[in-house]
Amino acid sequence: MDPFLSLLHSFSSSLTDGELSAMKFLCRDKIRKRKLESVQTVGELFTILLEQHDITRENVAFLEELLGNIKREDLLSKLKQFVDEGEVNAPEDQPDPHEKRLQKVAMEVICDNVGRDWRMLMRKLDLCDVKIDRIVAANPRDLREQLVQALREWQRWRGRDAKVADLITALRSCSMNLVADRVEQKLSLLSNGAR
């Protein structure tokens, strides 16, 4: 079963009729009036938003906005936890824990050192422009968050094939050798500390 759909189902069962009305009102610019009037449950509303790609497992910005507007901080924190833990991939498709730890360190260094040219880096990692544009739209004024989300998207998309070596190779092919050196240096310190 899809963990994202399970999460949406759990949300729909905990939202009241009043909250459904508020959410429907907030969706007026996304869903045609006639279609919106026929919605009787939160599940039906989520189904329409999923079909229209207003919410996807890769882009939950509109869902976050909805939950924030109806003051459901509890559900908002569950959603953020879900996204942070990368629950969208099955466990067997996840990198091993050691590689995941290396990725986390590498991604921190990249986020600290790569600025406006992050799109070029993500294209070298074969992340499609559609996904990049969605990430930018979801985080229009936060350059660092755009990069963080793009790297997470790459991680989710590649699953167990996401390797730190790919990040370093992509950095070097973008002439970001200083950042690649910093990543290698940090990883070296980490592996020497583990001995």
Care to describe what's here?
With 195 residues, the protein is mostly helical. The chain has two domains: 3-84, Death Domain, Fas (Orthogonal Bundle), CATH 1.10.533; 94-194, Orthogonal Bundle (Death Domain, Fas), CATH 1.10.533.10. Helix content is 70%, strand content 0%. The chain contains twelve helices and no strands. The chain has helices at 3-14, 17-26, 33-37, 42-51, 61-69, 73-84, 97-113, 118-124, 129-138, 143-158, 164-173, 177-194. Helix 7 packs antiparallel against helix 12 (177-194) and helix 11 (164-173) runs antiparallel to helix 12 (177-194). The longest helix is centred in the C-terminal third of the chain and has 18 residues, at 177-194.
Which residues form runs of ≥5 with pLDDT under 50? Answer: none
Q: Spell out the helices and strands N to C.
A: HHHHHHHHHHHH
Q: Report helical residue fraction.
A: 55-70%
**How many whole angstroms does the radius of gyration measure?**
19 Å
Please provide the count of β strands.
0
